[in-house]
Amino acid sequence: MEQTVPRTKADLLARWLLPLAALLAFGVWFYIAPPGILGKADAIGYAVCHRIDERSFHLFGRQLPLCARCTGEFYAAGLTLLFLSLTSPKKSGMPGWKLGAPLLFFLFAFALDGSNSYLYLLKQTSPGIFENIPNLYVPNNILRLFSGSGMGIALGSILYPAFNSSAWKTYNPAPALDWKKLGILIGIVLVVDLLILTEHPAVLYPIAIVSVLGVLSLLIIVFSMVWVLMMRLENTFETLIQMWMPLLAGLTLALLLITLIDLLRFRLTGTWGGFPLG
Question: pTM of the predicted model, to two decimals?
Fold first, then answer.
């Protein structure tokens, strides 16, 4: 007969307090966030992105919740997590050195384009100070989208097996990503990026939602892994249903972090828009 492990007082207390904390965190965030679906999405993007208007795509005259680079990064990360969960269930192996090379290239391209773009911004906001430092090229939203998308693939490809190796009681040590899956992922992301560049509302509206869901997905996974480690629950779960507490804790911590950043940023800037350039 299978023996059940007795629950500690801390575990029993968490089972009661955690849902209440989640409701409270959601209620506070929902209250302070701007109205409407896109307004709530803006409040999530506001916590992780500069949201500069000129560096964002626009839907019906309003900027998306995330800038072009962050839109690419977080929708691609969310897409990668979903793709790997369907094609590599519970696989925990990290990409090897050969497969890691294109992921490192995505990271390098992200850092290079981001640094070049930031230098260009500094020259705009502080004329004369950085004139002796040349830009490699004139940055634009197309490059921001593609470099962000590559970074999103890299993030999702690393975070997914890390989650599996810490969560599941029985996991597959085989690599979660292989060359075929990476090729398919790159192809899907390229198609989506090209669709985004059409700036058609039928594309931008779902991308606005998917990108902020990507933000939440990454934060929930990271914080749920932290919860698992703190509660010493590594490799004790067999299904996602059994993981409801770590996942709910991850959601609660993610909402608390977003709310705190939102409140601090709004207090400093007085606007839900992007950082002022002047």
Answer: 0.90
